[in-house]
């Protein structure tokens, strides 16, 4: 059962569950656009409900944000597990890398939660995410697809580094700048013998 499902499970009436679902959807949107410091008033406004409804249906703003962000991190864990099921280790890793970076690039709150010490308790999902990334990297290295001189712990930092600001040295980033940067990073991670054989 996901953290959001637990929130829904605490509410029996259908109309109350509809309000909780609206608040969850609004919280996801607000976390992406504003970050994890979004207020309960802003979430309620986006959901089209009053602040009283917010607090009648949910234990707290923190509980809602915890559920939304925790579930999103677990979704990233599942993306990594899917990548591990890909018969081609390098293809699986590249697919995960693109999804991981895109989510961080598109969600201010997830980027904050994964990149800083935020007030949310994410130890369990982050531990699982670290383990899945380690398995992805080691699988690629054992297959000869990825350089073996790169510790798995470096890979999350390298992937995160492809996200840029809107401008640098007077240049404006392209809309897909992170994708361009990711191509360069993946080329750098790939084992050299594969470059020369293509």
TrEMBL record:
The keyword Transferase is assigned to this record: no
Record bears the keyword Manganese: no
PROSITE patterns hit by this protein: HTH_TETR_2
DNA-binding region, residue intervals: 39-58
InterPro entries associated with the record: Homeodomain-like_sf (IPR009057), HTH-type_TetR-like_transc_reg (IPR050109), HTH_TetR (IPR001647), Tet_transcr_reg_TetR-rel_C_sf (IPR036271), TetR_SbtR-like_C (IPR049445)
One annotated GO molecular function: DNA-binding transcription factor activity
Pfam families hit by this protein: TetR_C_43, TetR_N
Domain of life of the native organism: Bacteria
Gene3D superfamilies listed in its UniProt record: Tetracycline Repressor, domain 2
Residue ranges of domain HTH tetR-type in the record: 17-76
UniProt keyword terms in alphabetical order: DNA-binding, Transcription, Transcription regulation
Protein name per its UniProtKB record: Transcriptional regulator, TetR family
């Amino acid at each position: 059962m996901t953290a959001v499902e637990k929130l829904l499970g605490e509410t029996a009436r259908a109309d109350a569950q509809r309000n909780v679902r609206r608040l969850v959807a609004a919280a996801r949107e607000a976390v992406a656009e504003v970050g994890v410091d979004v207020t309960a008033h802003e979430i309620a406004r986006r959901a089209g409900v009053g602040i009283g409804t917010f607090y009648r249906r949910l234990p707290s703003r923190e509980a809602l944000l915890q559920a939304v962000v925790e579930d999103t991190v677990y979704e990233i864990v599942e993306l990594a597990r899917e990548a591990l099921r890909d018969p081609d280790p390098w293809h699986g890793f590249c697919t995960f890398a693109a999804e991981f970076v895109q989510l961080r690039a598109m969600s201010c709150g997830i980027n904050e939660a994964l990149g800083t010490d935020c007030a949310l308790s994410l130890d369990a999902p982050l531990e699982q995410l670290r383990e899945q990334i380690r398995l992805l990297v080691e699988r690629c290295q054992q297959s000869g697809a990825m350089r073996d001189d790169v510790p798995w712990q470096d890979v999350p930092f390298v992937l995160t580094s492809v996200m840029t600001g809107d401008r640098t040295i007077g240049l404006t980033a392209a809309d897909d700048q992170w994708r361009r940067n990711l191509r360069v990073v993946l080329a750098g991670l790939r084992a050299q013998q594969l470059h020369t054989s293509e």
